């Protein structure tokens, strides 16, 4: 694991979630992948359509699920998008200033989900245990 990987996921939070979810962990991570794929696409679509309301729910979804898995940078970026979209709705304008954040969202999401899925892969876990591990 690289320092960059450490910056994307708080592995202590992740480990607590993994312990709490137990056998359901991989299934819930799969839901995060499905929800995240859809939410990122919805956010990008809402930006293209200049639909501030369309940014809120998918950003909220990513924020909540990312933080559940310890993916704080992803959660923080989604929270910024959600917060700014809500403010824009209240002030009756479209948040064009979010274009750079939305442009960063997909790459950050993909890097983060890749790390989480690699960590959850049982074959990777067995191979990292080393030779002679039971």
Automatic annotation (TrEMBL):
The modification Phosphohistidine is found at residue 60. GO terms for biological process: phosphorelay signal transduction system. SUPFAM superfamilies: Histidine-containing phosphotransfer domain, HPT domain. This is Histidine phosphotransferase. Keywords: Phosphoprotein, Transferase, Two-component regulatory system. Residues 21-123 form the HPt domain. It comes from Allosphingosinicella deserti. One of its GO terms (molecular function) is protein kinase activity. InterPro entries: HPT_dom_sf, Sig_transdc_His_kin_Hpt_dom. Pfam families: Hpt. Gene3D superfamilies: HPT domain.
């Amino acid at each position: 694991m690289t320092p960059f990987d450490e910056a994307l996921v708080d592995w202590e939070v992740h480990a607590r979630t993994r312990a709490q979810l137990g056998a359901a962990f991989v299934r819930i991570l799969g839901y995060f992948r499905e929800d995240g794929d859809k939410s990122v696409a919805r956010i990008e679509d809402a930006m293209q359509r200049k639909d501030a309301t369309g940014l809120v729910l998918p950003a909220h979804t990513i924020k909540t699920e990312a933080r559940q898995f310890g993916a704080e940078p992803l959660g923080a970026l989604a929270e910024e998008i959600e917060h700014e979209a809500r403010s824009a709705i209240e002030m009756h304008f479209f948040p064009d200033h979010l274009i750079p954040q939305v442009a960063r969202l997909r790459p950050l999401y993909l890097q983060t989900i890749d790390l989480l899925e690699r960590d959850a892969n049982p074959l990777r876990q067995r191979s990292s245990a080393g030779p002679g591990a039971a």
